[in-house]
Write a structure and sequence with these properties.
The complex is a heterotrimer of chains A (293), B (469) and C (295). Chain B has 469 residues and is α/β, with parallel strands linked by helices. Chain B contains 5 helices and 36 strands. Chain B has a single domain, classed as 3 Solenoid (Pectate Lyase C-like), CATH 2.160.20. The two termini of chain C are 35 Å apart. Classes of the chains: A alpha/beta (293), B alpha/beta (469), C mainly alpha (295).
């Protein structure tokens, strides 16, 4: 459904994406995992064909560069935060995209209702909460019932309940057979939604793996996020890996997967290496589906 | 408006042709002019000869004081040879004739009518396709009234004069319409009255050479190279005339060269290249020029004067929106002329002063200082940039920086705060206020339709109404 | 959130479609037009232009207005200055913010992620803004025209229509330039700055420069005319004047030269200069926008 061959994108001297190739089958769900600046967003933009790149990408067999509009017609895109004219009313905003996607007004209303935004048509986009904006973005993405959905950290600006709503909706999309490709910072989302994970760093896909390989889940695990000084992060990651922890650097601190009841272990490990931990955060308990194990 | 005027003149031309055509059909065949000669020979002095409708071919000389009446249907055709009708007897009247087909050889100055005798009246004739129109040579006290003269369509330099007077004093030239001639010109002819004539598409509308003590009233000089040009002519009164769109190379509405005691009052000088041009006038000591209550508007230059110009009085004139209000030809200033009389100056549309005491006279002296004007005088090519913001920028700079400010060309100590009421006998054409309204309304409706079609939101259909795109 | 269900009632085999070429452009044009109508600049410019046009009409007619004998051409001359200042300013700034502001707010990316091409988006925005500008000018000219008709009992409709027509052309040309600036600018403020600079350059600097060089280098009339024609504002001015006076001799030796050598072709030469200023910057903007490496 989604095919990338040697995608390269440079901004000046920096390689934002280099030599990325992959193939995603219809119905697949792939997470892009990596720190800020790893190239996740740029890769999504390349695949959408909204920026120029070297290499080849197609969606549903349509080359995104030669037949961009037709390829994009197959994709619903949910950005990190919906950016649309703040003065526009919700109703007219979704009607605009409905016309772009050539679906009826009834379908637009239905799509709004599907994300629970019916009744808010007269509200201006500026007055929507973060969660409502993302639901609107989802409604727009689903207008034409496209087979492919791209999501660029769709929950990063949301609180816990907003996040839960979006994750629920995406789970349903997955079970409806949509092909999902999403960037995420949150291991729990990845574990819940993805069947493949592309671990990205410095524009490269380092590994094409699965959530269970990334976070071994024989034992119930918890994710502890450690906040350190920026300078010590790499050193800390090394020390933790040596101690046998699964570690991931991302934009906000170090994520360490630890067996339940061992949350202090990484801190102790770092203390031995004389690395100071400034703060910790314990992410929500993960509800790993049985099938995953 | 040019094409419209053109269309109108073509219409006139065509209708007059058909008029002549009908006359021709009435007689079936042209007749030699000797037929008319015989009529004159049979007549007593003072008789009215009613020429039957018809075309009379050849050259006619009138040697008896008779009244030749064409009744609008007699056509005299010179067949392209010499002067069509020559009047050598005093007291002859020629009226309501159509005259055409003079010779074309400039050396003989062939005319429609030549007069070499006194007290002749030439009235209501239609003259076409001739080199010169009416030529008076030592023919004093003539009356030239209500004739329509259209000269042969040649390039302007090769045309003849529509009406020419030579040593002919005391004539009245009234209500004539001259189109496409060289000049209406007056040589050495004094005490003339030139009233309500219309001259268009000619070289000089009214041209005076050494012709003194004459009154010009309510003439309309439109679209000529120059409107009125006086040379070496004294004691002329120019009153209530309109000079408009005279835009030849010099393009003066009124031009004066070495003329004394000129009075110019109540004229409208509009959209000429130069409204009033003064070259060394007055030229004698103890002589003045008076320019009063004229509307001098929309010309490229309102008043242009040679630097030696002095002793003219300008009062109660309205200088409105001339690109340059008053300039000198080359260097020099106009300060030796008076721009007010008895504490009453002129109205200047670019006057930036104020009238706090509301006495109708501005409280600040009018002293125009146009840097762009100075630049134009030196570099005529820069005129390309008039009507542009760059021009305004230059003037603004000059106002802001005193060291760039040129000396003012003139000083009006008591400028009028509002334009004076100037009574014009000739009022221009106000065209189609209704059409303008309709056009404006259609512009507005276009915008409204645009906004309605493109701008109104087609909103969400109601939830269950099953709308479609 | 129990109502939040993935849509499943559409037939599965229906393939989502992209809009047609024209359809996409129209959609964006309508959206741009609506946004313009709702925006403050549109209202501000329309009101400012209308008020100024009416004021200029009044002023140039004062004292002689009721006579009406000068025809309309001289009032138009008064309007020329105003138009040459305001219309390019409106169009340049409107064009300059078109793409750059969307880019800055991040909305551009979202729009480009929809099934449309960059060319459709750009052309749609151009046509929408063009329609809004035309409406704005029509309102201004309509009201001041009504005032002229009422005050003078009539002026030359043909001359007025000519003025309106060429003003619209000038605005479209300046809009093209504005859009071109916008395509190349990352930030809206930068684009607006460049637009203002361009406005200054076209309105003042190029004329003053040409004046100076015509004096310094003793340029011949045909050279001055050729160079002046390159400036869309001068072309506009000459086109209006030549259509009202049937000749450019009002503009001195250079104008007379142009009238004599080009004759009846002169209005067409000037109109094609304006047309080139509409088409070339817009075409360049489309090419640059399509070939742009980033959003």
């Amino acid at each position: 459904m989604i095919r990338a061959v040697n995608i390269n994108k440079r901004f000046g001297q920096a390689h934002a994406v280099s030599n990325v190739s992959f193939d995603i089958q219809a119905g697949g769900s792939v997470a892009l995992w990596g720190s800020n600046g790893a190239g996740k967003t740029t890769l999504l933009r390349c695949l959408l064909g909204v920026i120029r790149f070297r290499g080849m990408a197609d969606i549903g067999g349509l080359d995104v560069r030669r037949r961009g509009p037709h390829a994009r017609a197959l994709v619903g895109y949910v950005p990190q935060e919906l950016a649309f004219h703040d003065d526009a009313r919700l109703g007219s905003a979704i009607m605009f995209f409905a016309r772009l996607r050539r679906v009826s007004g009834a379908r637009a209303a239905e799509s709004l209702a599907a994300v629970g935004l019916n009744g808010h048509e007269r509200k201006r986009v500026r007055d929507l909460s973060g969660g409502m904006k993302q639901r609107l973005a989802l409604a727009v993405a689903l207008l034409s019932d496209p087979p492919v959905i791209f999501l660029d950290e769709p929950t990063s600006n949301l609180d816990a309940s907003g996040r839960g709503e979006v994750v629920e909706a995406l789970k349903r999309l997955r079970s409806d057979g949509k092909t999902l490709l999403f960037a995420s910072h949150r291991p729990d989302e990845v574990i819940l939604l993805a069947d493949r994970v592309f671990v990205m760093e410095q524009g490269k896909v380092l590994s094409d793996t699965t959530p269970s390989a990334l976070w071994p889940t024989e034992k119930p695990v918890q994710i502890v996020r450690l906040f350190l000084t920026k300078a010590s992060e790499a050193e800390a990651a090394d020390a933790l890996r040596k101690a046998g922890h699964a570690v991931h650097l991302n934009g906000r601190g170090l994520c360490v997967a630890v067996p339940r009841g061992h949350k202090a272990e990484p801190i102790a490990t770092l203390a031995r290496s004389q690395i100071e931990v400034r703060d910790i955060e314990v992410l929500d308990d993960l509800q790993i589906p049985e099938a995953k194990q | 408006m040019k094409p419209v005027q053109f269309a109108i003149s073509i219409c006139l031309f065509v209708t007059s042709l058909t008029h002549a055509e009908k006359a021709m059909q009435a007689t079936l065949n042209p007749v030699p002019v000797s037929f008319v000669v015989e009529l004159i020979e049979k007549a007593e002095p003072g008789d009215v000869i009613r020429v039957p409708p018809g075309v009379y071919e050849g050259n006619l000389i009138i040697r008896k004081p008779i009244i030749l009446d064409g009744g609008q249907k007699a056509i005299f055709d010179g067949l392209g040879k010499a002067t069509v009708i020559e009047v050598v007897a005093e007291g002859v009247t020629i009226r309501e004739c159509a005259i055409r087909g003079s010779g074309m050889d400039v050396t003989g100055e062939p005319s429609a009518i030549r007069v070499i005798a006194a007290n002749v009246t030439i009235e209501s004739n239609t003259i076409e396709d001739v080199l010169f129109g009416i030529d008076l040579r030592e023919a004093p006290s003539a009356n030239i009234r209500n004739n329509v003269i259209r000269c042969k369509d040649l390039e302007p330099g090769r045309r003849g004069d529509g009406i020419r007077l030579w040593w002919s004093h005391g004539c009245v030239i009234e209500g004539n319409v001259v189109q496409g001639s060289r000049d209406m010109v007056f040589w050495y002819s004094e005490d003339l009255q030139i009233l309500r004539n219309t001259v268009t598409h000619s070289r000089y509308g009214l041209h005076f050479m050494y012709s003194h003590n004459t009154v010009l009233e309510e003439n309309d000089l439109n679209g000529n190279s120059v409107g009125v040009y006086l040379m070496y002519s004294n004691g002329i009164t120019i009153r209530g005339n309109r000079m408009q769109n005279n835009r030849g190379a010099s393009g003066y509405g009124i031009g004066l060269k070495d003329c004394d005691d000129i009075t110019i009052t109540g004229n409208a000088l509009l959209a000429n290249r130069v409204g009033v041009y003064i070259d060394n006038s007055p030229s004698s000591i103890n002589s003045t020029g008076l320019i009063e209550s004229n509307m001098i508007a929309f010309n490229e230059i309102g008043l242009l004067a040679t630097p030696n110009t002095h002793d003219n009085v300008f009062t109660r004139n309205a200088f409105v929106e001339n690109e340059e209000q008053a300039v000198t030809h080359g260097r020099g200033r106009l300060v030796t002329n008076a721009f007010s009389r008895g504490g009453v100056g002129n109205y200047w549309s670019d006057y930036a002063g104020f009238d706090l005491d509301s006495d109708g006279i501005g409280d600040v002296t009018y002293e125009p200082k146009s840097l762009f004007g100075v630049m134009l005088a030196k570099e005529p090519n820069l005129r390309l940039f008039v009507h542009s913001p760059a021009q305004q920028a230059i003037e603004f700079t000059a106002r802001a920086l005193p060291e760039l400010r040129p000396e003012s060309t003139l000083i009006d100590p008591s400028p009028l705060a509002s334009p004076p009421e100037i009574k014009l006998e000739i009022v221009g054409t106000g065209v189609g206020g209704m059409r303008m309204f309709i056009f404006s309304a259609s512009l507005l409706s276009f915008a409204a339709i645009c906004i309605a079609v493109m701008g109104i939101e087609r909103g969400m259909p109601a939830q269950n109404s099953g709308g479609r795109t | 959130m129990s109502s939040m269900t993935a849509p499943s009632d559409l037939p599965k085999k229906s393939v989502p479609a992209a809009p047609t070429r024209v359809g996409g452009i129209t959609l964006f044009a309508r959206r741009e037009f609506r946004d313009a109508l709702a925006s403050k600049w549109f209202l501000l410019y329309t009101v400012a232009f209308t008020v100024l046009a009416v004021a200029v009409s009044f002023l140039s007619l004062s004292g002689v207005g009721s006579q009406g004998f000068a025809g309309f051409s001289r009032t138009a001359a008064g309007l020329l200055n105003l138009i040459m200042l305001v219309a390019p300013l409106m169009a340049l700034t409107a064009g300059a913010s078109s793409i750059a502001s969307e880019r800055e707010r991040g909305t551009l990316l979202y729009l480009l992620a929809q099934p449309v091409s960059r060319a459709q988006l750009l052309l749609g925005k151009y046509f929408g803004l063009a329609a809004a500008l035309t409406c704005s000018l029509c309102i201004g000219f309509g009201i001041s025209g009504g005032v002229l008709a009422w005050r003078t009992g009539g002026v030359g409709v043909g001359a007025y229509a000519t003025l309106v027509g060429f003003t619209v052309l000038l605005a479209l040309a300046m809009l093209s330039v504005g859009v071109l600036i916008s395509v190349g600018s990352r930030r809206s403020s930068v684009a607006t700055g460049i637009a203002l600079f361009t406005w200054l350059a076209l309105v003042f600097v190029s004329d003053l420069g040409l004046m100076a060089s015509s004096v310094l280098f003793k340029l011949r009339v045909q050279e001055i005319f050729g160079l002046a024609t390159l400036n869309p504002l001068q072309s506009f001015k000459m086109a209006v004047i030549v259509n009202m006076n049937a000749s450019l001799d009002v503009l001195g030796p250079v104008g007379a030269y142009a009238s004599q050598t080009l004759g009846n072709g002169l209005p067409w030469v000037l109109a094609s200069s304006l047309a080139a200023w509409i088409i070339l910057p817009l075409a360049l903007a489309v090419v640059l926008f399509v070939r742009r490496g980033s959003v």
